[in-house]
Structures are given as C-alpha cells and as structure tokens.
Automatic annotation (TrEMBL):
Keywords: Amino-acid biosynthesis, Decarboxylase, Lyase, Lysine biosynthesis, Pyridoxal phosphate. The modification N6-(pyridoxal phosphate)lysine is found at residue 81. This is Diaminopimelate decarboxylase. The gene is lysA. Its EC number is 4.1.1.20. Belongs to the Orn/Lys/Arg decarboxylase class-II family. LysA subfamily. Specifically catalyzes the decarboxylation of meso-diaminopimelate (meso-DAP) to L-lysine. Residues 57-300 form the Orn/DAP/Arg decarboxylase 2 N-terminal domain. Pyridoxal 5'-phosphate binds at residues 260, 294-297, 396. It comes from the Bacteria. Homodimer.
Length: 446
C-alpha cells in the first residue's frame, strides 16, 4: 500500500523530516512511534495527552549513551517541572535518572516516585525556609543556592538542625542563550543566580559559614537552546571561575551544567547529545569534576502529543483563513498563548489526508484571543469530528494546565508498543467545584 506521505505538501514533509517518530499510514492514519493515534482517540476521546514510554526511554538512553561514548561520567538530573507525572518519573528513575527540583512539592513528588535523595538537586530563586529545611532533612545531593541571602539563611537553618547542607552556587554567567526572552535565564538582567563577578567572594563565604558544604557551581542559561555556542561560552567562563577558586585554595568538586537542550518544534535543529557531550569533554574534562546536567524539555517534549477534535469549521469571510475550533485549548496547552510557541499539527484520521489542502487557523474554544494553536497553516480541509495531534506537547504541557473556562483537566494516556493505559483519568465536571466552599456567614437574602 502506498503511503499518502508522497503527496504531502513540502511544509508537512519538512515537519515529518524533523519528527521521525511520526508516520502516516494510508489505512490507519497517524502513528506516534508504534502507537496508532486513531485507536487512542477512538478509545479515550479528547482532549487527551499521549505520552509514548518507548520514545521517552529511547531519548533518555540516547542522552546517557552520548556521555558514555565520551567516557564522561555525567549525572542526569531530570528537570521534573517539564512533566512531573509519577509514571514519567518512575520510568526515568528506572533508567537511572535523578531529579532537578524547584519546590518542596517537587521534592516530595520525586521521593514518592522512588528517586533517591542522593540523586536530587534543588534549584530556584525563592526557596522558603520550610523547603530548605525539608531538603536538609532529606539529605538531598545538592542545593543550588541562587543568592548570598539564601546562603546565609540556609546556614542558619542547617545550624539549627545540627546538619550540613551540600551546596552549589548557581552562577549567572551573563551569556545570551539566543532563545525566547521568556525562557532566557543566564543574562545579568534575569533574576536567576549569583552575578559572575561576585561568585568567588560568595563561594569563599560559603566556606566560612557554619554547616555548609560547598561542592562547586551550577549554571543554567535558559531553555530551548539548539546550538552549542551559548553552552561553550558559559562553560569557558565557568572553567575560568573554577581555576580562580582553586588558585585561591578553595575546593571545587562539582559542576552542574544545567539543562535547556532544544528540540525541533518546527524545522529547527534539535540539540545534539553527542555535540554537547563532546563539548563537555573538550572544555570540562581536564578539570576533573563531577559533572551533572538538568534536561527537561529534550527528554519529554517530543515524547508526548495532545489530541484534539474539531468542533467547528468557522468562516469569517473570504480574506481570512477559516477558523478550525478544536476541543483542546490554552487551558490544556498554554505554550502558544504564553510564549508564542509554534507546535506542529497533524491530522490523525487517514481519510483527511486525501482532502484538498488549504490555509487554516487552528484555535481553541476559550474566550481569549490568545487561545490560538496555529495561524495560516497549510492542512487538509478539517471538518467537525476530525482528530488532530498537536506535536511536542510532552514538556511544559499537562503540568501547566488549568481549568480556566470550567474546562476539566484532559485525560492522560501512556503507551508502549501497542499497549495503552490511563495514567490520569479525565477530570469530571463535578471535580471542578468539589473543594469550593461557600462561607456560612455569606449574606443571604431573607
Ligand atoms: C527549567 C529548568 C531546567 C530545564 O530546562 P529545559 O529547557 O526543560 O531543559 C533545568 N534547570 C533549571 C534550574 C531550570 O529551571
């Protein structure tokens, strides 16, 4: 049987070239790895998140093996804010991953998933006293301290508990990650980390403060970075810093290299694990450090999709492309509304691919102009009842969902081979208000 892919317009061919996990079968429609999305849509309805465990596992292994190929011992701490579902943490933990956390809630979630405290790093600019206490109590591997103020607070808390806190200083290297301004973190103007110029001074203080064990430094410059250049700039600055610290007699054993590895949403180049590993080998290996990374998006982003169903084909006059309203919305996947993010969209049912193509707007039903998934996208003419997949929705997707417009949280499915399982049932409408309380003193009409 010939695949309809031959007749796809160049834009969809490019999208598929950058998304090798997707195939279009003439009879069964869109496949995500070995998962028939048509079968999933029919069985579970929409909107529905689909996380492909096989793809996730193979991405983790690809990353892990890139470092092994360079004989580099690098600890992978999954930045679980990208998608903290227990099923995902469980899978990654089994592969050997640790966790990079940004809150006490994420700490408890990581522990719940069976990730050992010795594999947990804690980042974040506003850790509370309770969160720091929990981290010390649990004896996690390392707290990435983001300010002098936090360092002093941590020392005080650790002292009062009679325990030590192992720390890295998160340094802001003032390097432009050349990514979206809302996901850049390593410029001096960003709130993250300790200024590069103050790094040695604060590291010395860490040495002098009671109950603090300084391990070294941490640097995370942003997200969705596809070239190795910003990493090279940041690492080179860190090498200078570490040499300077060591020259001053300060021990540095650890460098946490951060995350931010980019993926191909559209036609961008995906960050290459082997290029990153080679760079780390070249620039960092001579320093004999314990190295770590904190990838989030790269692992889970391409491992998930969001399925939506067309509810309306709406024409607003001849000079504007038709509005295709689907039942997934910005409350499910907020990235387009929040970051102007571009996501690939592919029809799921095979027969759709045989229709004429036209320029379409794909929108959610929420009452906000920013509830847009695509503008002027060349797709086959979509009709009510058609299913579509929004690609690369595994990172910063379900975790950012809300119930805005009284829209229940979408179902979440995990697949492997031809198996599928619900990992989070679709929320019911009644769930939306089950914890809401009307005060008894509320003035009532008499
Ligand atoms: C968000 C975050 C990450 C992960 O970023 P990705 O772009 O998802 O890889 C890593 N480290 C820290 C400190 C973060 O805040």
């Amino acid at each position: 049987m010939s695949s309809p892919i031959q007749s796809l317009p160049p834009s969809l061919q490019t999208l598929l070239q950058h998304h090798p996990d997707f195939t279009i079968n003439a009879k069964e429609g869109l496949y995500f790895g070995q998962t028939s999305l048509k079968a999933i849509a029919q069985e579970y309805g929409s909107p529905t998140w689909v996380m492909n465990a096989d793809i996730l596992k193979s991405r983790y292994q690809k990353l892990d093996q890139a470092f092994k190929a360079e004989q580099l011992d690098v600890s992978i701490h999954y930045a679980m804010k990208a998608n903290g579902h227990l099923a995902i943490l469980d899978l990654l933990a089994r592969e050997g991953a640790g966790a990079d956390i940004v809150s006490g809630g994420e700490l408890k979630r990581a522990l719940k998933a069976g990730i050992h405290p010795s594999k947990i790093c804690f980042s974040g600019v506003g850790k509370t006293e309770d969160e720091l206490r929990l981290a010390i109590e649990t004896q996690i591997a390392q707290i990435n301290v983001e300010s002098r103020e936090e360092l002093h607070l941590l020392s005080k808390i650790a002292q009062s508990m009679g325990k030590n806190a192992a720390i890295c200083l998160r340094i802001n290297p003032d390097v432009d990650a050349k990514t979206h301004h809302k996901i850049t973190t390593g410029l001096a103007e960003n709130k993250f980390g300790i200024a590069y110029k103050q790094a040695i001074e604060v590291y010395k203080e860490a040495y002098e403060l009671p109950n603090i064990t300084p391990l070294g430094f941490d640097v995370h410059i942003g997200s969705q970075i596809s070239s190795t250049d910003p990493y090279r700039q940041a690492f080179v600055k860190m090498v200078d810093l570490i040499n300077e610290a060591r020259n001053q007699g300060l021990e540095v054993s650890t460098l946490d290299c951060g995350g931010g590895f980019g993926i191909s949403y559209h036609d961008e180049q995906e960050a290459s694990p082997s290029a990153i590993a080679a760079l780390m080998k070249e620039v960092l290996a001579p320093l004999d450090l314990k190295l770590g990374i904190e990838p989030g998006r790269w692992l889970v982003g391409p491992s998930g999709v969001l399925i939506g169903k067309v509810v309306m084909h709406k024409s607003n006059g001849s000079d504007v492309a038709p509005f295709i309203i689907i039942d997934a919305a910005m409350n499910d996947l907020v990235r387009p509304a929040m970051y102007d993010a571009w996501h690939g969209i592919l029809p799921i049912n095979p027969e759709i691919y045989r229709r004429p193509y036209q320029s379409l707007n794909i929108d959610g039903p929420v009452c906000e102009s920013s509830d847009i998934f695509a503008r002027d996208r060349l797709l086959p003419n979509l009709q009510p009842g058609d299913f579509v997949a929004i690609l690369d929705a595994g990172a910063y997707g379900s975790v950012m969902s809300s119930t805005y417009n009284a829209r229940p949280m979408a179902a979440q499915i995990m697949t492997s081979g031809n198996q599928s399982a619900i990992i989070q049932p679709r929320q019911t409408i009644e769930d939306l208000w089950k914890d809401e309380i009307i005060p008894s003193w509320y003035p009532k009409n008499s």
